[in-house]
Design brief:
By secondary structure, the protein is mainly α. It has three helices and no strands. The longest helix has about 35 residues, at about 5-40.
Length: about 110
């Protein structure tokens, strides 16, 4: 039977992972929200003189959003891997595969 300390350590690790994801999400929203406010022109009056405000200058923001969103989705998949059956089954298959390989190596 698992002792209470190992359960606590596993729970603490899980909370730390969740905290990291939510910080990632917070930074994503703040940073990309600010970039979109600049791109849309809402913050042009606050920008220093000579700051580029032409639309073509800010086209990279869309690609930045897509790439970062992809990374955020991967982060969410990793964090919530225990919630989705297909990931849990994949992990179990991989564990069994590695255990089988180790057994085969032990027989040699």
């Amino acid at each position: 039977m698992e002792n209470i300390e190992s359960k606590y350590e596993r729970a603490a690790k899980r909370v730390k992972e969740m905290k990291g994801f939510y910080n990632h999400l917070k930074i994503f929203v703040i940073f990309n929200g600010g970039l979109y406010l600049i791109k849309s022109g809402w913050l042009n009056s606050l920008m220093p003189e000579g700051f580029p405000v032409e639309d073509y200058y800010w086209n990279w923001i869309d690609l930045n959003l897509l790439i970062w969103l992809g990374i955020l989705v991967i982060h969410a998949l990793i964090l919530y891997r225990h919630k989705w059956g297909f990931l849990r089954k994949w992990e179990e298959r991989q564990i069994q595969k590695i255990l089988e390989q180790e057994r085969e190596e032990g027989k040699k």
